[in-house]
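Hi P.,

Sorry for the delay on this. The queue was packed all week, but I finally got your sequence through. Input first:
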Amino acid sequence: MENLVIKGGKALNGSVSIGGSKNAVLPIMAAALLVDQPTVLTNVPDISDVHTFCELLSYLNVKTSFENHTLTIDPSKIKKRELPADLVCKMRASILVAGALLARFGEVDMPYPGGCVLGKRSVSSHVIGLQRLGAEVVDITRKFHLKAKKLESNEIVIMSEFSVTATENVIIAASTIPKKTQIRIAACEPHVQDLCEFLVKMGVKIEGIGTHNLTIYGKEKLKAVEHKVVSDYLQAGTYLLAGVVTRGEVTVTNCNPEHLDIFFEKLEEIGVTFKRTRTSATVYPTKKLMAIEHLKTGVHPNFPTDLQAPFTVALAMANGVSKVFETLFDGRFQYLFELEKMGAKIELLNPHQAILIGPIKLKGAPVASCDIRAGAAMVLAGLAAEGETLINQITYIDRGYENLEENLRKLGADIQRVEAVLT
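Then the structure:
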């Protein structure tokens, strides 16, 4: 096991090039199973989740090759197998193969997926969505086991909630149905849009990309393609916040700031000065951060839940009282207990609402990373804090951020990865 050790209190300055999106590449890897020829993906982040997904595909006899951010997926010899628990339980995104396996083999048989602990995260929306395409439940009490003699268009598939991964599973499955399928209450995050763009290249016609209503005209025979994975707007937001909380000047390049419109609105509310171009963004030093009345997460294009924890670090340092309302997950606030160890003044009202009372000066302390984005929040807090911060459980961080320490060191951070001392 490893820890991160951060000596904070230094203003960060410089530029970070943003890599490909974790949340985009994983469903695209699953969709690559729909063809018999090799798919080539570029701008792929070199993170543990990608390697785990490659292991999952290898178990299905799918050949993968990953080098220099280019991933080749060859499913020409794919085999139908029950997926192993040790791989599936490593990350929730493993469920993304369900739609592709149903389309390809008429069956998916796997344990329930693992991943970040974010409260009650049911797979019912996946089951309901795939049932509306003709899938039948074999067993969903002990595992995720569905069958379909043939997937068929139900004309209109109404999702039971704005679930990103469930939407992606239904999109992937519907892409092989040679009829019109309409998906209502579809998630439309940038990574969902990138999956759609990938499938369009493969020969699927999709209308309404970027909206909550999709119309898909699938094809029984799709073609293998090359695709550049969209940049990770969540990484971009995290590095910009590193500049904000350390009162430095940080630029992110090779990104699409339009994916962060509401994020920039909130930066403006707390008093941050910034500049945006078509492919980059810069935040400038802010001496006095201001509290905001409400930071409310929601489905895209609302404020992203994955940036709630990192942004809250800035709110802890802001002048006044800020209220955070997490609408999507009831386990997102675990990191607040860690932030309190560093001196933050927090009132947890319920699993979805918290109040932060500032300004406070964060102080270094031993803290834990509760999930990917909570881990990023602890890193930001450590960068802003006086003294030394030790962060454990950093395997979560490695799942979502490539070369985090290296990028932060280039900005001037004093951050090291060390072996954990067992006591």
